[in-house]
Amino acid sequence: MTTEPRRTVERNNARTRWLHAAVYTTVLVLLLTGWWLTLGQEGRPSPLSSLTGWSDAELHTAIGWVFAGIALLGMVVGWRAARTLLTDSVRFRRSDLHWLVRWPRAVVTGRFARHEGHFDPGQRVANLVLVVLLLSLVVTGIGLWTVSGGPVFVWFNRLHRWATYLVTPVIAGHILIASGVLPGYRGVWRAMHLGGRLRRRDAARVWPAWLERKDDDARRPPER
């Protein structure tokens, strides 16, 4: 007797979703306060500053430490997920070039070329860029906190600003794609929200090989 597969499939478990929520909440606060300070508004409280009663510089520093702690906790507690993220993100196949060539049109049509990864090739590139830039922001942020002045401070500040300039459009692009506004990515927002379950047809469109492996694991009898 065979059972028909459910209409939805779990992409991310609760721990992954909560970690993701903590990361994007802190990163968005850091972007808001960081850009506020970068644009020379230090003497004028941002909405967040007015709401909390902290200056934007104090908020930026405090949330920066919170983000660093969350990242460290995620690597320790969720080391398996971190390993999957890194190992799959650095693995590229020749067929991924075909996916990347077709991607601009597929964003609209939903007809993505097949790929074999846990993440699609675009996600893998974005993952690597985000890891490098966010790590740079943490390291230079700690450097700015520990050094009070001099040429080292100037370099930390310069690198921190440039990492901010580079990471902002990457995060904006991630939000645009993950929101499901683009036709090709419609429904993918459910992977990180509402139980982490998305429709099977959406999973098959964006992550076909992952869905096949998921189904194979579900059909495999449990080990005794």
Describe the overall structure:
The chain crosses the membrane at residues 21-39, 59-82, 128-156, 162-182. GO terms for molecular function: electron transfer activity. The mean pLDDT is 91. The chain has one domain: Fumarate Reductase Cytochrome B subunit (Up-down Bundle), CATH 1.20.950.20. It contains nine helices and two strands; from the N terminus they run βαααααααβαα. It starts with 7 loop residues before the first strand and ends in a 5-residue tail after the last helix. It has helices at residues 14-38, 47-52, 56-77, 79-89, 95-109, 121-146, 151-178, 200-206, 208-219; strands at 8-10, 197-199. The relative contact order is 0.13. Helices cover 68% and strands 3% of the residues. The protein has 224 residues and is mostly helical. The longest helix is centred in the C-terminal third of the chain and has 28 residues, at 151-178. Helix 3 (56-77) packs across helix 6 (121-146), helix 4 (79-89) packs across helix 6 (121-146) and helix 8 packs across helix 9. It has a two-stranded antiparallel ribbon with strand order 1-2.
